Amino acid sequence: VTGLPFDSREVLSRLGRELKPLNQRTNRVAFCSRWDKEKQPWFYMDLIESYIKNNPDSYPEFCILTGSKTLRSNVPEYVERARELEKKGYLKIYEGLTKDQYYELLADSRVHFTCNLQEWVGNTVNEASTFGVLPLHGAYRAFPETLFNEARHLYVPWSIEDAEGKLNELLLNPIDTKNICTRRRIEADKCIDRTIDIL
User: Fold this and answer.
1) Phi and psi (nearest 5°) for 73?
2) Which runs of consecutive H residues, i.e. helices, occur in the chain?
3) CB contact burial 5-31 (16+ within 10 A = b; e otherwise)
4) Beta bridge partners of 155
5) DSSP string over 14-43
6) From 119's CA, which of 39, 57, 62, 144 has a CA 20 to 30 Å away?
7) What does the DSSP 8-state code read for residue 173?
8) Which of 132, 139, 185 is nearest to 158 (CA)?
9) Are strands 134-138 and 154-155 parallel, antiparallel or unpaired?
10) Dihedral (Cα; 189, 183, 142, 163), 10-degree rounding
11) Cβ neighbour number for residue 72 with a 10 Å cutoff
């Protein structure tokens, strides 16, 4: 296993500015995966509704970041539900983003949330870590290993209660306590060397 080819220096160079400290960033939770069934967007939407129900006076900007011209999914009902949440002001959908626009929004976020069932570890995790965005992922497949088994950044899969509790803690205490982002970035940068070694 080598990981995906990745160069954090190139990603950082696209931002064109210094990274803000986490506590000076927009109180934003970013969902960067496709809006398809295997990425479990319904779980993210359930989490949003539960979080806002339990914190009606103070909640973060929950968002979707996508380069697609309009939000799309292999389950049309997911898009319909997302639009309803958008109308309520619970969810912000950033569409048609260029890579640089995507990086700018991601780098100004506090938490990167993933709940997918399909892939092991994608570039969204590496990109978010490069910008120091705190990860919160289900303890599923390779994510525990990817996040060094740090419980603060892993929730029990399919548990809204656990995901919500972990999310609340990350938002209230936006500090990379175990240098998770730096450690993840360093590991991601090693993938090309690992591939060359194997070849």
Assistant:
1) -155, 155
2) 8-15, 41-54, 76-88, 99-107, 123-130, 143-146, 160-172, 180-189, 191-198
3) ebebeebbeebeeebeebeebeebbbb
4) 138
5) HH-SPPPPGGGS--EEEE-S-SSGGG-HHH
6) 62
7) S
8) 139
9) parallel
10) -130
11) 14
Q: CB of 21 within 8 A of CB of 108?
A: no
Is the Cα dihedral 152, 153, 157, 162 positive or negative? Answer: positive
CA distance 12 to 26: 19
Tell me the pLDDT of the chain (199 aa) as tens digits: 677 889 999 999 999 899 999 999 999 999 999 999 999 999 999 999 999 999 999 999 999 999 999 999 999 999 999 999 999 999 999 999 999 999 999 999 999 999 987 666 778 999 999 999 999 999 988 899 889 999 999 999 999 999 999 999 999 999 999 999 999 999 999 988 988 999 9
pTM over 0.90: yes
Query: Of 113, 95, 105, which is closest to residue 14 (Cα–Cα)?
Result: 105
Query: Minimal CA–CA distance to 110: which of 158, 50, 172?
Result: 172
- Per the structure block, which two tokens stand in for 59? 């909640």
Angstrom distance (rounded) from CA 156 to CA 11: 30
Q: Which residue has the tokens 């993210």?
A: 44
How far, in Å, CA of 196 to CA of 199, rounded? 5
Residue 52 sits at the vertex; the CA angle it makes with 48 and 58, to the nearest 5 degrees, is 125
Report the alpha-carbon distance of residue 80 to residue 76 in Å, rounded: 6
